[in-house]
Amino acid sequence: MRWKTLLALVGCAGCGFQGSAAQEGPPQIDARLGGSVDGPVDSPPSPPKPRRIRLRIPATQVTGPLTDFPVYVDLDDAQSRADLKAKLGATATNLSFRLRTDAGTTALAHEVASWDAATGRLTAWVKLPAIEATADVDTAFELHYGLPEVAVPPAPQAVWSNGFLFVFHLDSLTGTTFANAANNAANGTAVNLNAGRLKAGKLGVGVELNNNNQVITFVNPIAGSGPSTFSAWVSQKTTNDDDSLIQLGDGSASRSRFFYTRYAGPNLGSGLYHGNLDWFTGTNIQNDGPRLLHWTYNAQVGRIYVSGAEIGGSPRTYDVPADTTGTDGRIGNASPNFGSNMGLDGTIDEVRIANVARSAAWIAAEYANQNTPATFVVPTPPDDAP
Question: What is the pTM of this model?
Answer without folding.
Answer: 0.87
